[in-house]
Write a structure and sequence with these properties.
alpha/beta, 8-stranded mixed β-sheet, 10 helices, 15% strand, globular
């Protein structure tokens, strides 16, 4: 990683992922982290800046300054900003730096982002985060992809991460994540709507008992409560992810209607804070 300090790490975007990963990475001796978030410097960003200060992360006034000299640059923004951030970063990243794209974006989005970063001389690794990061933190399962995925995964795993290289081809790791998400995010919205309808007609107990008879390993009361909480807390982000899944389906020649409907249901659930 010539031209970069291997102990220096940068985050573009400092939400839940940036904060959770920083907490774990800073447990390694000699690691220093700088971060930039679009909200820094605003009233809405004060909470993020406070979190950074408490963790020991330096807040930078720009993404370019945050990433200057960093060996690893994590892009942890919203899915709709992933490609724009990569395109901007490509104008100032240097050879030897590694851009780790952890955004839940469509395979085609990751491929375009990779093209921009690689053209700058830096390396690009797509990283598909396979579970919510809050509980596992740095140990959350991540699928990595790209020609340098193995070497980068080895380096980051030595710092406590949990990356598994799955392909040298950009897009496959994200495809694996989003195909899974069609089921996981779809189940969440199915259970939310099912529970709401059951409550409207006061039939939750018999309906859930019938479902349990068909799927005896599942506690449907607990599952419904858990799914409601997930949608209420993460629905906006999950909706964006499912729109990326819809883009993936469209690009493959399939109808995106189901993924789009799941995205809309996740958005509705988050707005009304179901179950709170």
């Amino acid at each position: 990683m010539a031209g970069a300090n291997s102990a220096a790490i940068a985050f573009i975007g400092f939400g839940e992922v940036g904060q959770s990963f920083s907490r774990g990475l800073l447990a390694n001796e000699g690691v220093a982290i700088r971060a930039y978030d679009l909200l820094f410097g605003s009233d809405a960003g004060s909470r993020l800046e406070t979190a950074a200060q408490e963790l020991g992360v330096v807040c930078a006034p720009s993404a370019q300054e945050a990433c200057s000299g960093a060996a690893f640059v994590f892009s942890a923004v919203t899915a709709d900003r992933a490609e724009a951030v990569a395109s901007e970063a490509a104008t100032w990243l240097k050879p030897g730096q590694i851009f780790v794209d952890v955004n839940s974006a469509a395979p085609s989005t990751k491929q375009r982002a990779a093209q921009a970063i690689v053209a700058s001389g830096a390396d690009y690794v797509e990283a598909a985060v396979m579970a919510p990061v809050l509980k596992p933190g740095l140990k959350v399962a991540i699928l990595s992809g790209g020609p340098t995925a193995q070497a980068v995964s080895d380096a980051l795993n030595a710092l406590g991460m949990n990356l598994t290289p799955v392909s040298e081809i950009y897009g496959r790791a994200s495809a694996m994540k989003l195909c899974r998400s069609i089921v996981i995010k779809g189940l969440e919205t199915l259970m939310v709507d099912c529970a709401a309808a059951c409550e409207a007609w006061d039939v939750k107990d018999p309906v859930f008992a019938s479902l349990h008879a068909t799927f005896p390993s599942i506690d449907f009361h607990a599952l419904a409560a858990d799914m409601r909480e997930r949608v209420a807390t993460h629905g906006v982000r999950r909706a964006a992810e499912m729109r990326e899944a819809a883009e993936m389906l469209t690009a493959a020649g399939f109808h995106p209607g189901l993924a789009g409907a799941i995205a809309d249901a996740q958005q509705r659930g988050a707005r009304r804070k179901v179950g709170t």
